[in-house]
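User: Teach me something about this protein's shape.
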Amino acid sequence: MANRMEKNLNDELLALLKKERYISLTTVDYETKAPDVRVLSWIYAPDRETLRFTIDNRSKMMENMKHNSGIVITVIGNGSTYAIAGEVKILKEEIEDVPIKLALAELDIKEVKDIMFYGAKMTLEPRYEKTYDAEAAAKLDNQVMKAMKTV
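Assistant: First, the predicted structure itself:
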């Protein structure tokens, strides 16, 4: 049902966001004040009101979120597209026991909107594959997910 709005994640979205997933993150560029959109995959929903995600701690997104805590995460799944908005805080500037420089952020969800245009549904969800060493990718994924779950 297009354009439905909720205050937190429903059962279907909560289940989708319990594991790595293709999402987009929109912040406000702290210099230009224009929207800045990036794609991520390390995301985790510990509950209906919260999303955790990791980002490169040297990235422009980090600076953007330090200057403006309002963000939107876009998720495609369950036949629709959702915009999840709220206030973000940086929980850790650097995650220990992870071999790359990642920060851990947490979104306090204020609004979940079904933004699919009227009369349509998504019939395929985005798919991706990691193009580097599969064993190294699996090890890193496990380290990052563990860090997000054990805050």
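Now, about its shape. Residues 5-149 form a domain with the Pnp Oxidase; Chain A fold (CATH 2.30.110.10). The mean pLDDT is 93. If you'd like, I can walk through any region in more detail.
User: That's plenty for now, thanks!
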